[in-house]
Amino acid sequence: MGKFILRRVMWMFLVLFVVSLVTFLLMHAVPGGPFTAEKRLPAATLKQLEAKYNLDAPLHIQYLTYVRDIMVPTITSGKKSSALDHKYLINIPLNDAQNRVIRWMDFGPSFRNINRTVSDIFRDNLPVSMRLGAAALVVTLTIGLPLGVISGLKRNTPIDYAAMAVAVMGVSVPVIIMGPVLQYALGVQAKILPVSGWGDFKHLILPAFALGIADSALVARLTRASLLEVLSKDYIRTARAKGLAERVVVLRHALRNSLIPIITVIGPMIAYILTGTFVVETIFGIPGMGRFFVTSVSGRDYPVIMGTVLLFAIFLVLANTLVDIVYIWLDPRITYE
Amino acid sequence: MNSPTPAANITQLTDAEQALLHPKSRSMTQDALLRLSRNRAAVLGGIVVIINILMALLAPTLAPRKFDQVSFTNTNSAPEWVTKVFPGMKPRDAGGYVKVNNDYLLGADKLGRDLFSRILYGSRISISVAIVGPVISILIGFLVGLVAGYKGGWVDNILMRLVDIMYAFPTMLLIILFMAFFRAGVGGDNPGPLVAFLTKLDANMGGLLFIFVGIGLTAWMGAARLVRGQVLVARELEYVNAARMIGAKPGRIILRHILPNVIGPLIITETMAIPSYISYEAFLSFIGLGVNPPTPSWGGMIAEGALLIQNYPNQAIFPALALFLLIFSFNFLGDGLRDALDPTLRGSE
Q1: Measured between CA atoms, how close is A187 to chain B, in angstroms?
Q2: Are the C-beta atoms of B137 and B220 separated by less than 8 Å?
Q3: pLDDT tens-digit map of B143-187
């Protein structure tokens, strides 16, 4: 087990290394650098800017600096510095005599938002996206799991067929369709929920559903298949044979084991939700990371693009690694060789 | 049924009974097609797909207007039936705000461009992605899988680790990254001849080329794994050994003996992947990294329409409907093809 976790974590770092390298190289191969997008700057100004943002160093030095600034925490001491507070995403003051602060994750400056760093943008917008994503995850599970369990237990009945038909529909409707349709049906037509905006709980409902429904269909199908498989196992027959109530058989013996494989879809689910936020936040006017990302793409704000992709990749790879580890921990039958 | 018929009543048997009496041999393709044609959902899906292909091919003749024909007197106008379908859209005559113009079948967008024509032209983007996406993915995947499986050893090891890493890489993020890179104007002011050519070609295709490249670069891993697995199996088959023994060249072995084994599963997985290719493109166009405006793409149209959904829901709902129908149909078709081509079902009726 320890060896497996070690291997898995090393693999995670390898993937993150490749992701960061590809991201970095692609964004730095962009012609002319970030400061020549619209107006031509005088050569001297350009040189100064490049020196300021460390763009004149050799490429590998730039990459190493970039990765170091993100990965390696530093401790600063001395006067309070709001510039430093802005620079780093995580600042933990130690509250001691030298005023030392542990600082971590410097994603660099934003080229388009002169007064904000990428860390600032993350700090302001990421919590919004996180809330949305968490709500979507809740929607996915609260719809998907019961639907799957019911159709698994009522196999080959009209309920099962109806649930699975809905699930097939759900899987083939991407967020980009679900968003406007829900917005129109429930927001504009029925006027039950606000069409767009952010702040209250009621603003969260439509976007969370738009984001969560497609995956809930996936979860339902998987739950059903997994439950059916478990129900055909010998130990279920044994449980029934020794006269346990059906309720106990289902709840205690079947359900618990059948839910384990669901964990494996959490990885792809998070990936879907992360990229889905780009669309949903744009449609519903939610001031989260996704909408900011879309504007930074059209505004060619490369540090923001790079930082967002990296941050999301870290999330994803971390989630996948955790899922793998939790999975074998939950299910002792799985060998990890 | 050319056999002499001593008993005339045999010919009066039903078709099914006839078939039992004289089982006709069918090739695998015939068998698969027959099974496919009996799957109603798949047939329906196929019909919608064919309609979409026709729409894409005939868009210039079918469309009443050019997709980029602007009319500032008809901005956001809608025909009468649309105002009835969407109850919020009250016509001006009835005290509302919608300009009624029955010349536009589905309405016009905020620049007065005909929605119907734009949806017709938009099918070109989705259909080309649906065709080219699998082709690129198969080409790259086939090559990588073939080399890995056939060569084995360290080549196999390196290629398969590459596939593993690509799998762990968040696909959408990678595509976004590639597209942001391409859209930034690769090559700068003095691009090399190849880059200049590609950029120009991409511009002429309305930005489609780089979408193809972006999808192709991120979607080959499944095919590579599949082909590699099949090659590993096929390599050990006796008839392949026999072919090698009588001196068949590797190229011939691959084409004649290994390819037919691989092609079925490849077609199935790629058809099932088409909906995801279509949604990738729609997603990219939605966030502004897809086709270049004014080339219409359903994803881009949804993005534009979503901004006006309170007042002019038709501008987002119609392209969304088109996208939904196409994705849905490809899903049905993919499921049907899988059932039809799955060898384990073969022969069982």
Answers
A1: 8
A2: yes
A3: 899 889 888 889 999 998 888 888 777 777 788 888 877 776 654
Contact list, A184 vs chain B (CB under 8 Å): 309, 313, 316-317
- Of the CA atoms within 13 Å of residue B28, those in its CB half-sphere come to 11
Which of B184, B306, B320 is nearest residue A300 as measured by Cβ atoms? B184
Distance from CA of A176 to the nearest CA of B (A): 7
Q: Give the strand order in the sheet containing A101-106.
A: A74-76, A101-106, A88-93
What residues 102-161 of chain A have any CB closer than 8 A to a CB of chain B?
none
Residue entry with tokens 């990890």: A336
The rounded distance, in Å, linking the Cα atoms of B281 and B302 is: 12
Contact call for A179 and B185, based on CB within 8 A: no
**Shortest CA distance from B335: residue in chain A:** A168
pLDDT over 80 (residue A246): yes
The pLDDT value recorded for residue B343 is 56
Report the chain A residue with the minimal C-alpha distance to residue B309. Answer: A184
Cα–Cα distance between B316 and B104 in angstroms, integer? 15
Give the mean model confidence (pLDDT) for residues B88-100: 81
Pick from B86, B287, B317, B323 the residue to mutate for testing the A interface (most A CBs within 10 Å). B287
Top residue of B181, B277, B297 to mutate, by most chain A CBs within 10 Å, is: B181
| Cis bond upstream, residue A268 (ω within 30) | no
Residue of A nearest to B301 (CA): A176
CB contact set of A118 (below 8 Å; sequence gap of 6+): A107, A108, A109, A110, A303, A304, A307
Q: Does residue B97 carry a pLDDT above 50?
A: yes
Q: Is the dihedral of CA B89, B91, B96, B98 positive or negative?
A: positive
- Pull the structure tokens for residue A333: 């039958």
Which residues are within 8 A (CB) of B14 and not within 5 positions of it... i.e. 6 or more apart? Answer: none
> Which residues on chain A are in Cβ contact (under 8 Å) with B327?
172-174
- Using CA atoms of A50, A56, A57, A62 in order, give the dihedral in degrees to the nearest 10: 50
pLDDT of residue B11: 57
Q: What is the dihedral of CA A51, A72, A125, A282, to 10 degrees?
A: 70
Phi-psi region of A156 (alpha: psi -120 to 50; beta: other; left: phi over 0): left
Count Cβ–Cβ pairs < 8 Å, chain A vs chain B.
129
Amino acid making up residue A315: F
More confident residue, B202 or B45: B45
| Cβ-based contacts of A181 with chain B (< 8 Å) | 317, 320
DSSP for residue A106: E
Maximal C-alpha separation, chain A: 87
Higher pLDDT, A119 or A337: A119
Which of B89, B172, B198, B301 to mutate to test binding with chain A, by most A CBs within 10 Å of its CB? B172
Encode pLDDT of A83-120 as tens digits: 888 888 888 888 888 888 888 888 888 877 777 888 88
pLDDT 10s digits, A65-75 = 888 888 888 88
State what percent of residues in chain B have pLDDT above 90. Answer: 16
How many CA atoms within 13 Å lie on the side-chain side of B158?
Answer: 5
The pair of three-digit structure tokens given for residue A45, joined into one six-digit string: 């100004």
Q: How confident is the model at residue B348 (pLDDT cuts 50, 70, 90)?
A: very low
What SS3 class is residue A39? coil
The span from the CA of A244 to the CA of A247, in Å, is 8
Give this prediction's pTM. Answer: 0.83
Helices first, then strands: H and E counts in chain B: 15, 0
